[in-house]
Automatic annotation (TrEMBL):
InterPro entries: Fe-transptr_FeoA-like (IPR007167), FeoA (IPR052713), FeoA_core_dom (IPR038157), Transcriptional_repressor_C (IPR008988). GO terms for molecular function: transition metal ion binding. Residues 6-77 form the Ferrous iron transporter FeoA-like domain. This is Ferrous iron transport protein A. The lineage of its organism: Bacteria, Pseudomonadati, Bacteroidota, Cytophagia, Cytophagales. The keyword Repressor does not apply. It comes from the Bacteria. SUPFAM superfamilies: C-terminal domain of transcriptional repressors. Keywords: Iron. Transmembrane segments: none annotated. The keyword Iron-sulfur does not apply. It comes from Emticicia agri.
């Protein structure tokens, strides 16, 4: 049974996930340079009032991303 992909843009405030892969190869290079490496835990810290940007905590620092950028970061499925 295949579950739908969950991205950073799908997280609720305070929710965590583990980065699995990226949807956009061009954007992935920029995200990798900013510390968004596969296997790294990411936490959604805030969502701006109009929904963009979103703030995440990754690799020990805070990073603000556009919602469309956050939607390119695919998380690992829950291991429940």
């Amino acid at each position: 049974m295949k579950f739908p992909e969950k991205t950073v843009a799908d997280l609720n405030i305070g929710e965590k996930g583990i980065i699995n892969t990226f949807k956009d190869p061009v954007m992935s290079l920029k995200l990798l340079e900013m510390g968004c490496l596969p296997g790294t835990e990411v936490t959604l810290d805030f969502i701006a009032p109009l929904g963009c940007p979103v703030g995440i905590r990754v690799a020990g620092y805070h990073l603000s991303l556009r919602k469309r950028e956050a939607a390119t970061i695919v998380l690992k499925p829950n291991q429940a």
